[in-house]
Design goal:
The chain is an alpha+beta fold. The protein is built from 17 helices and 30 strands. The longest helix is centred in the middle third of the chain and has 20 residues.
Length: 644
């Protein structure tokens, strides 16, 4: 049955709100969402319906609204198991609100109404700062972090709300409306039933949406905490110039591009970075989009979950969370997803990450999970302070109702807090210009038509963004997994270009069966490539494997230094490149040792004269870095030169 829709004001709005204050109201949700395209917050939506528990999205059986929203899903973090990813299974249910009524109220209908009293007891973090700092320090020193892994590690703030009932949650929502205007979604979801769960939050993180037949994602990373005296332009400029913060955002964008490219046709585009200004802090974020090619349910299922709440590379970050966090996350890090149809009858999807959210059970026990994105250059003290700020941003709004912190930045067209005429705007423009033009300009068709490219998947990473770039700059691409039967013969017989992709691991690891197979394939390709044929190329790990097979003096070393983005020269061309592998290769000066082929590739070495950055020959070539990364300037040109 399609839901009914009402725009209500006056006494009609009062009657709708009265239904929320009973002793046992039916399942309902209150939402204030950012308008499509980022043009400021919308009105308050009130949803009533029936709440169901299902095992998977495939069983959800989404209600088919003729227009407007038809269903609201609450997806717990443990839903990652559907995709074979590691997570603690805490049995948090996947719930779906089948919407039977959809009301639209002006915000003033709630903010002018005094609500139920809110009382807190036994409030505090379950672990102290020292414990969280030890966790950050341990991860930051790990090989995984040095190899470019970023992970959001959580800690929990808990409290009791004596006499809790849904009307108290409505009051918490009202306070958030009054104090936290910068959220992507401000929301309250009450599941109803005998043992209801109530979620109240103001999340800055929109995840995946379908707007006007385009699939949209909003990767967000980087946090500027307002000092006690309020934000100032100088400190904000220092934050925006911090390479660690910009690299974390770029890493998050890369992770989301991998997801989006699987859900969109040609013409994927990156916009930003922008600022998302909230009451106590602000974030940097980008907007990425492309023509939608999947249904709303498939789009949602394949986009689980926001890398902002997990980390990147995604699968490796899930494993790290399973190791460093000892309990399940409940709905934290999961999604709220609203699906229906727009005015033209096309499918519509909007979703938000469940962060900055109170999860309250039927006994009034509340949990607020907060986290910081941790990498190799993280400061334990700074990351602990970030978690405190994120908790305070919500809890202060819910308890004392202070006015929003004033900001010196004028609000831009998208409600993102940018100053359109000042130094902050200029820095954001420069950061945008420093991103890969392939992604910012939205290339939609191959600029060179070559033979079909076979891409070797060495395991451990999603290659969707790389394949998207290969297809755009060269032509059709087909992925061959290293463990496929006959993979070596398939690649060796192929007359067109072959590209060995990147992945995790040490290429000369004697104890790794995977690396043994990859070394065998690489050696076969280097030995057997016919003169004058299409090249075999490699990026990241693929480059390392080819170099070990082609260069007798190539040696594997641990990557030195910190940071993922480096300014290098690739055969005379300056490139800012994303280096993500834990290991690097060293070699003697170019031409110092004969290659194992009669046509040795030219070598490009780093400033120290030893680190191998690239090689280029008629038959074998590659680069140590990732051309598909949004951080790599000219990445499309580099990839094109490898394949032609």
């Amino acid at each position: 049955m399609a839901p009914t829709h009402f725009d209500v004001t006056g006494m009609s709005g009062v009657r709708v709100l009265e239904r929320l204050h009973g002793a046992a109201p039916p399942p309902f949700a209150l939402l204030r969402r950012q308008r499509a395209g980022g043009h400021g917050p919308g009105p308050v939506e009130v949803l009533f319906g029936e709440m169901e528990t299902v095992r998977s999205l495939d069983e959800a059986g989404w209600a088919d609204a003729s227009r407007g929203p038809g269903a609201l899903a609450l997806l717990p973090f443990r839903q990652l198991a559907e995709h074979g990813l590691r997570c603690h299974d805490d049995q948090t249910p996947l719930r779906v609100l089948r919407i039977s009524e959809h009301h639209v109220l002006p915000q003033e209908a709630l903010t002018r109404r005094l609500g139920a009293p809110v009382r807190w007891q036994d409030a505090g973090f379950t672990t102290d700062d020292a414990h969280y700092e030890r966790l950050v320090r341990e991860f930051a020193a790990s090989d995984a972090a040095r190899g470019g892994l970023n992970v959001l590690l959580r800690r929990d703030y808990t409290a009791r709300l004596p006499g809790f009932r849904p009307a108290v949650a409505v009051e918490l929502f009202r306070r958030l409306l009054a104090t936290e205007s910068g959220a992507y979604w401000t929301f309250l979801v009450h599941t109803g039933g005998e043992r209801p769960t109530t979620l109240v939050g103001a999340t800055p993180q929109g995840h995946v949406a379908i707007e006007g037949r385009r699939v949209v994602m909003n990767p967000l990373c980087g946090t500027y905490r307002y000092p006690p005296h309020g934000p100032c332009t100088g400190e904000l400029l220092a934050f925006l110039a911090d390479r660690k913060e910009s690299e974390e955002l770029a890493t998050t964008v890369d992770a989301e591009l991998t997801v989006l490219c699987a859900l969109a046709g040609p013409g994927v585009r990156v916009e930003g970075p922008f600022l998302r200004r909230m009451a106590h802090l602000l974030h940097t974020q980008c907007r990425i989009s492309g023509p939608s090619v999947a249904s709303a349910r498939e789009t949602l299922s394949r986009a689980l979950f926001a890398s902002t709440a997990v980390g990147s590379p995604f699968a490796e970050a899930c494993r790290a969370i399973h190791r460093y966090e000892t309990t399940g996350r409940g709905y934290y890090g999961g999604l709220l997803a609203l699906m229906g149809r727009d005015g033209r009858g096309d499918e519509e999807l909007d979703s938000a990450a469940v962060i900055r959210t109170l999860d309250i059970d039927h006994l009034g026990r509340a949990r607020l999970s907060v986290g910081a994105t941790v990498g190799s250059r993280s400061s334990p003290e700074s990351e602990a302070a970030e978690t405190r700020t994120k908790a305070a941003a919500l809890l202060t709004a819910l308890t004392t109702q202070p006015p929003p912190v004033a900001s010196p930045l004028r609000r831009g067209p998208g409600g993102d807090g940018t100053d359109a005429h000042g130094p902050v705007h200029d820095v954001l423009v420069r950061r945008h210009a420093a991103l890969s033009s392939f992604w910012t300009k939205g290339v939609s068709a191959p600029t060179v038509r070559g033979g079909r490219v076979l891409v070797l998947d060495p395991g451990g990473e999603d290659l969707t963004a790389l394949v998207h770039m290969v297809t755009s700059v060269h032509g059709p691409a087909e992925v061959v997994r290293y463990e496929d039967p006959g993979a070596c013969d398939t690649l060796s017989r192929h007359r067109g270009p072959v590209l060995l992709a990147s992945g995790p691991g040490r290429p000369d690891d004697p104890g790794s069966p995977r690396m043994a197979v990859l070394r065998q394939i690489s050696a076969s390709l280097v030995r057997g490539r016919p003169p004058g044929g299409a090249p075999v190329a490699g990026v990241g790990l693929g480059f390392q494997l080819l170099a070990l097979a082609a260069l007798p003096d190539a040696r594997v070393t641990a990557r030195t230094g910190t940071g993922l983005g480096r300014d290098v020269e690739v055969f005379g061309r300056p490139v800012t490149a994303a280096f993500r592998n834990t290991y690097a290769l060293t070699s003697g000066p170019a031409g110092a040792a004969p290659a194992r082929r009669r046509d040795p590739p030219a070598l490009c070495l780093g400033p120290d004269g030893r680190e191998l950055i690239a090689m280029h020959g008629a038959a074998v070539r590659g680069v140590q870095f990732r051309p598909e990364s949004v951080m790599t300037t000219g990445g499309a040109d580099v990839l094109r030169s490898l394949l032609r």
